[in-house]
Amino acid sequence: MVMSSNGLALIYHSQYNLELPGHIFPAHKYSHLYNRVKKDPVYAQWDILLPKIAEEHDLELVHTKEYLDDLFSYDHTPRTMYSELPLNRSIVESFCYGVGGTIYAMELTKKHMFAFNMGGGYHHSFPDKAEGFCYLNDIAIAIRKSKETRPNEKALIIDLDLHQGNGNSYIFQYDDNVYTFSMHQGNIYPKKENSDFDIHLEPGTKDDQYLTILRDALIKIKKEFEPTIIYYLAGADPYEDDSLGELKLTMKGMKERDRQIRQFSLETGAPCVITLAGGYARDFRDTVEIHFNTISAFGEK
């Protein structure tokens, strides 16, 4: 069984995982999420689809040749130095597989309403440089890739990570066929770019306020833009016990957030690509559970 009756496809590759002992980025969360899915009585029998590694010509749809040359040479240069991750073959290959997963999810929306890459969401990467925990921008690459076969595609990026999706905001700032929406804590990293619609949340924002703001934002977006596809960055880091943030969403609030995006996708008729993005809960198991709850929210009938 590949999908549920409402059209959810799941994508995963073991290469998503990184060995980063002691690093705040929980790069082994991908395998733990996979295992959580396989132990669940609903999803245990599902086929998890395997992506291919992204080709360099796909990466060049967004990233400059000079930057990619540095990246694949594993050189610390002014283009790669702003990453907060090590730079080596296994890490670069992991990012290439993550990009491949998001491209595959985009392709699967021809048949499925929801396509979930159990990785990806590298929204801080710029065309000519790395930033944060991001070497390659998978969402931007998938959007550009889709234009090859769907030139009139109108893509909506809904970024609900704790941090602004500054890379995507920069890349698509002059593209009328891509609408960037980022709702994030306003007083923290990164240096902000201008999205089509930014909401800068105050520290301490709780479930009710967050969900009301999101609901109103989606109503506004629906009036301004008619997407044919949605890319949802379902960051786990707005959670109340995240080590990098000060938003105060509960597990229940996080899942209701995901349900709102699912319902918005159904109402607009635009299929949705879902990626994980960030998550740094003090208890690592919470990060995994939040990501799993996103899967189950989109898998509900």
TrEMBL record:
Record's keyword terms, sorted: Hydrolase
InterPro entries with a match to the protein in the record: HDAC_classIV, HDACs, His_deacetylse_dom, His_deacetylse_dom_sf, Ureohydrolase_dom_sf
Pfam families in the record: Hist_deacetyl
Domain called Histone deacetylase: residue spans: 23-282
Source species, domain of life: Bacteria
Family: Belongs to the histone deacetylase family.
PANTHER family linked to this entry: HISTONE DEACETYLASE 12, HISTONE DEACETYLASE HDAC1-RELATED
Name used for this protein in its record: Histone deacetylase
Organism: Leptospira kobayashii
Protein encoded by which gene: acuC_2
